[in-house]
Amino acid sequence: MAFYNPDPGMAQQLARLVDDLEQEGRPGLADRLSITWVRYPESLRRRAASLELEDFWAQAPSGANWGGARPRYPASVVKLVYLVAAEAWLQLQLIEDEPELRRALADMIRDSGNDATSLVVDRLSGTTSGPDLPPERFAEWVAQRQLVNRWLEDLGWPELQGCNACQKTWGDGPYGRERAFYGDQLENRNRLSTDATARLLHAVIAGALVSPPACRRMRELLRRSLDPQERSADPENQVDGFLGAGLPTDAKLWSKAGWMSQARHDAAYVEIEGADPFLLVVFSEGKGCAGDETLLPAIARSLRSHPVESPLG
Asked: Where are the domains of the chain?
């Protein structure tokens, strides 16, 4: 069962938006784009704190998607998975809570640091990067690197089917055992869908995953400033060119973006005074999308400013 109730009016609005974006000079965008959009009648923050978890998940909000179940390469959005996994490992006392890990988690989310992510993945899996390994040792190494995927499977969420979160993120690319782990045709690359990402962010914002204190820590790392001066001082602000750039400066934003030569993604929860809170995850693939700094802001601007029309109206 999906964590949101499909809303026909929202689905129609998404379809019209995708068509409009294509007509603006983005041919073929519909196949390169995935969107999951969820609306809430009130703030989602800490919503689970006053409910039993079963009751929280039974209160499905309204939502819609465009290609939301399609797994795509998530770029740095996968760091959200590693953040939640790290908090889960800490709760189970599988890893030690130490300043260097906390520093890496902060740099991984706030600045989207790949070096920080490397340390986090090493801690989660008990593995390290390096040269190629003999077959038997490599098989053991691979099994360890699947620990996060096995944890995702244990969540039992249908949205996670077909997803893969076992690879580090790179600047120049993987080498040695890391390159071998990707597979000859890169078939073992990370994969996430916007539906899966949306459910994960939904749980973190609501305080429904790991523990309420852990979710508070994660929300603090995901909070973004929309202040123009702060954004201009930080070239890696994860707002400009992403969903946050389509929001008013007084909006409240929690997000994790991803960008590389063939992708531009963002996952965001937004609260705006006088409007319904919403969660929006957008994955866009291809060189054209990666270089289009107006696409994601346009999507956020459209979906936060226009009321949903009745499918009969």
From this structure: 5-305
Pick the CATH number of 5-305 from 3.40.710.10, 3.30.70.1450, 3.40.50.450, 3.30.365.10: 3.40.710.10
Residue whose tokens read 């929690």: 254
Burial code (b: 16+ CB inside 10 Å, e: under 16) for 87-110 equals: bbbbeeeeeeeeeebeebbbbbbb
Asked whether the beta carbons of 259 and 229 are under 8 A apart, the reply is no
Tens of pLDDT along the chain (313 residues)? 579 999 999 999 999 999 999 999 999 999 999 999 999 999 999 899 889 999 999 999 999 999 999 999 999 999 999 999 999 999 999 999 999 999 999 999 999 999 999 999 999 999 999 999 999 999 999 999 999 999 999 999 999 999 999 999 999 999 999 999 999 999 999 999 999 999 999 999 999 999 999 999 999 999 999 999 999 998 889 999 999 999 999 999 999 999 999 999 999 999 999 999 999 999 999 999 999 999 999 999 999 965 555 443 3
Spatial separation of the C-alpha atoms in residues 120 and 201, rounded to whole Å: 19
How would you list the strands of the sheet with 62-66, edge to edge?
Answer: 5-6, 62-66, 33-39, 278-285, 263-271, 252-260, 223-224
For the chain, first and last CA: distance in Å? 28
Number of H helices, E strands in the chain: 14, 7
185 exposed, middle or buried (CB, 10 Å; 0-12, 13-18, 19+)? exposed
Q: Tokens 């949205």 belong to which residue?
A: 159
User: Is the full-model pTM beyond 0.90?
Assistant: yes
Structure tokens at 226: 């929309």
**Is residue 162 a contact partner of residue 195, using CB atoms and an 8 Å limit?**
no
Burial of 259 (0-12, 13-18, 19+ CB in 10 A): buried
